[in-house]
Amino acid sequence: MSEKEKPKAVVVGGSIAGVSCAHALISAGWDVVVLEKSCSPNTGSPTGAGLGLDPLAQTLIESWLQQPELLHNSTLPLTVDLNQATDSEKKVSWTLARDENFNFRAALWADLHGLLFNALPSNIFFWGHLFLSFCVSDDKTSVKVKAKVLQTDETIEIVGNLLVAADGSLSSIRQSFFSDFKLRYSGYCAWRGVFDFSGNENSETVMGIRRAYPELGKCLYFDLGSGTHTVLYELQNKRFNWIWYVNQPEPKLQRNSATMKVSREMVQQMLQNAEKVWVPELVRVMKETEDPFLNFIYDSDPLEQIFWDNAVLVGDAAHPTTPHGLRSTNMSVLDAAVLGKCLAKWGAENLQSALREYQSIRLPVVSKQVLHARKMGRIKQGLVLPDRDPFDPKSARLEDFQELRQKNMPFFDYVPLLLL
Ligand SMILES: Cc1cc2nc3c(=O)[nH]c(=O)nc-3n(C[C@H](O)[C@H](O)[C@H](O)COP(=O)(O)OP(=O)(O)OC[C@H]3O[C@@H](n4cnc5c(N)ncnc54)[C@H](O)[C@@H]3O)c2cc1C
Ligand SMILES: *[C@@H]1O[C@H](CO)[C@@H](O)[C@H](O)[C@H]1NC(C)=O
Ligand SMILES: *[C@@H]1O[C@H](CO)[C@@H](O)[C@H](O)[C@H]1NC(C)=O
Question: Are 260 and 294 in contact (CB under 8 A)?
Fold first, then answer.
């Protein structure tokens, strides 16, 4: 195809799903522009923390990088998936379920985003561009997108053949197809933080946490208390990532975000509560973490449809999910890869067939995974579920423990034929 004939995709959202789509579509022979409302790469983002990558997502990301080993170099292995119970009175922990050969890797959001972004041609990415609206031509072969340039307040129009909505769980493009769509609150929020110990590797805090959690550096730790749980793992470059899930009523969402600004008082209160529940070594890491932040956890029932004419949803826009399957990033990367393969297979002239195949491959998988992640969150938080008593690590039985393993995720290591 000559340069002139290349079909063009307008991707809205430049987070993990957006940059992954840019790679996959360029590989499929498309021209791509990415519109992102943030004004610059979010390297120091306060809301960026750790995430897990499964083996397939790792392979796909490596295929998009000019220097594939950069992914390996900027992540740490998660080879053990370990669920432990914590007795909050005695402050002791014991193993509930343990899986070896887990084969995930842990990345910092900003590191992963940086890797993917830096491997893209620089002229395709439009920072500081807020998507406003789109309209599809009568013959459904083109789509006109309006965006506001935040620095100058001017409105621009971009015309393409395909609109890719990678605008996250609060997607405004999805809202134009499901006007009464609402996210579903999970019943809990997540306190999160990244503890940076570079230069302090031998401090009491670091030695203490390594004694209490000797497999840090290769293990994904879940600690289960009564009606609450934490996640702890190590990241590349001397950092620990921690998450503490706390049951509480739904907040009034601030503006358009599920991340909440926290006051000093809220942090102090959180730390006091942590002392009552978790082992002191973990509490100490929480206390010494700069700027912990708070995410309210939402998901949604699976959508019936994720494409219309020449608009398609990917990533969190297509399937908002709770984080308990460690899959939201993996899902975004896979969405992008499958979309790219479908477009390459059918060609731009058969866009409908390409998008239909994308939907038929991805929708059944992500729908099951979102519902499974929801169930796992409710179990680990001791919340009510149909047909069972709320889970309590102190009274649970062996078969309940087995259920906690990440490997129970539907389609755990299924690879779509198209990607083989
Ligand atoms: C700054 C940041 C930090 C994150 N940190 C973590 C983390 O530490 N751990 C983790 O597991 N997950 C994290 N996530 C979420 C994770 O990236 C996603 O859950 C997952 O990878 C799917 O991503 P997504 O690209 O579909 O959605 P998102 O990551 O939510 O990205 C949506 C993007 O669309 C942009 N956007 C939305 N509306 C518009 C509009 N109207 N015009 C233009 N752009 C728009 C947003 O600015 C955002 O960049 C983070 C997301 C962000 C944005
Ligand atoms: C990755 O790490 C290895 C070992 O430390 C190093 O030799 C290699 O140069 C690194 N690769 C890149 C691209 O940075
Ligand atoms: C990653 O998740 C997708 C679903 O989003 C799934 O199809 C795939 O098998 C997963 N990969 C691995 C290696 O588990």
Answer: yes
